[in-house]
Design brief:
This protein has one domain: Growth Hormone, Chain: A (Up-down Bundle), CATH 1.20.1250.20. It is globular and about 75 Å long. Helix 11 runs antiparallel to helix 21. The chain is mainly α and 459 residues long. The protein is 74% helix and 0% strand.
């Protein structure tokens, strides 16, 4: 990418680089770049809605759908539901990342949004826990693919000085979506009766409506269009017998082959995967249980309407997450990418025992949940900011999606085992603290990663 300003030509988005270093970062953005953010934000907000809606309603849904004889094992079934969603997320995300490198970021984004919107609505019609699990897997296929396309589009179209801020704003959509789910559950739960959980999933159909907006108003990434043209030329030259260089092979090879066949790229992917596994297990195996945990504490203490306390804790947790997402986008430029990573992982490690061991009343747990949300959910912002800055355009969506999604092939076991441990250990606290130790491996790999603050994207 050039450090000189580039002017928009035609419909594709052209990257604009710092016309005036002393101007506010948002002054560098044009209308099409704001539209990219809007599209990525809207797509990701309902990913957040879908993910957190499941955490909020899976207990009442399973109470309605499970046979009475299986209700003592409800926590285990809840873990299975979360694990199945993550497994679908992993499969769909990896496939969509590859598709985005070959068929375009915009087209892949529209398909994945439409997929998760349709299957979210169908989840509300589930009549058995098996149907519920099947629809969650299919919803997960779409959820995993949307994020990588949005993050990649922003990285490739926003100027260097604004890029991390845009990614932080985009990533905050997950928190806003989770907050939306918690808010809807707060109002629907008291009046919806046994079918309240179905109404929550019906709201998940809404994103299908703005796919048309993306089709009309969002342009494809110009770096991707240029790289796609170069890919075709190099593949044609290779077919004619020309030997490609290592750099050219990264462009011409199948993206997965290019990433894992190149030693430098492979090393970056594997190091980032360690952090990704820690982040995802920390969220799904620990934060997953916040509403259920505070509900159990409220019930044991004789508080009125324990489910309402669960909804309040969900709101608090996601307010904290939004603060973490937005702050991360600015802190990444202020203190650097590696310092941001270390801060988030340390915060997650320290705030889990605050939430699950030391906060004893529903009121205290709500406050601790907000603090924990800053670190265990807010830390996801590093995945939007950092990996796109490590990989070249030809394989960027594949690599970013691998880091964000393939970790779920391992981390989906976290909530599965957490559900079993909660049942075996007789509570949430020790299980959460045990799984919170997952942040230690992430901290250990941070020093081995490069600092990318202020550097252009690899071309």
């Amino acid at each position: 990418m050039s450090s000189k300003p580039t002017v928009q030509s035609g419909s594709p988005i052209a990257t604009l680089e710092s016309p005036a270093a002393n101007a506010p970062w948002y002054r560098e953005l044009n209308r099409d770049q704001w539209r990219v953010l809007k599209a990525a934000f809207l797509g990701w907000i309902f990913d957040g809605y879908e993910a957190y809606a499941l955490l909020l309603v899976m207990v009442p849904a399973l109470r309605q759908l499970l046979p009475a004889t299986e209700l003592p094992n409800l926590a285990s079934y809840a873990g299975i539901l979360v694990a199945i969603t993550l497994l679908g997320w992993a499969v769909g995300g990896v496939l969509a990342g590859i598709a985005a490198d070959y068929f375009g970021r915009k087209r892949t984004m529209m398909i994945t949004i439409l997929m998760y919107a349709v299957f979210s609505g169908l989840t509300g019609f589930a009549e058995s826990w098996m149907q519920l699990a099947a629809f969650r897997f299919l919803t997960g296929l779409g959820l995993g693919g949307e994020w990588a396309t949005g993050a990649t589009l922003i990285a490739e179209s926003w100027p260097r000085r604004a890029r991390s801020k845009g990614q932080g704003i985009m990533q905050s959509a997950f928190g806003w979506g989770s907050l939306l789910a918690a808010g809807i559950w707060y109002f629907v739960q008291p009046v919806g009766g046994e079918s309240a959980w179905r109404i929550v999933f019906f709201f998940g159909c809404i994103p299908a409506l703005f796919v048309f907006y993306i089709w009309r108003h969002v342009h494809e990434s110009e770096p991707w269009l240029e790289k796609q043209k170069e890919r075709r030329e190099l593949q044609s030259q290779r077919r004619s017998g020309r030997q490609l260089s290592r750099e050219e092979a990264v462009i011409a090879n199948f993206t997965l082959t290019a990433v894992f066949g190149n030693p430098a790229l492979r090393r970056l992917v594997l190091l980032c995967l360690v952090m990704s596994i820690s982040t995802i297990i920390g969220y799904w195996a620990v934060a997953t249980w916040v509403p259920s945990y505070v509900e159990s504490v409220a019930r044991a203490g004789g508080s009125g309407n324990p489910a309402r306390w669960g909804a309040i804790a969900g709101l608090a947790y996601n307010v904290g997450a939004i603060i973490g997402f937005l702050a991360g986008g600015f802190l990444a430029d202020l203190i650097g990418r590696r310092a941001l990573l270390a801060g988030f992982f340390t915060g997650g490690l320290l705030t889990i025992p605050v939430l699950y061991l030391w906060a004893r009343s529903p009121e205290a747990i709500v406050i601790a949940a907000a603090l924990n949300g800053v670190f265990t959910s807010g830390q996801f912002v590093w995945m939007a900011i950092y990996p796109p800055e490590l990989f070249p355009t030809a394989v960027r969506a594949t690599a970013v999606s691998l880091i964000f999604n393939s970790a779920r092939f391992i981390s989906f076991l976290g909530p599965l085992f957490a559900g079993v441990l909660i049942t075996r250990l007789g509570g949430y606290s020790m299980t959460a603290v045990i799984f919170g130790l997952i942040y230690i491996p992430a901290l250990l790999v941070v020093p081995f990663l490069p600092e990318t603050r202020g550097k252009p994207l690899p071309s």
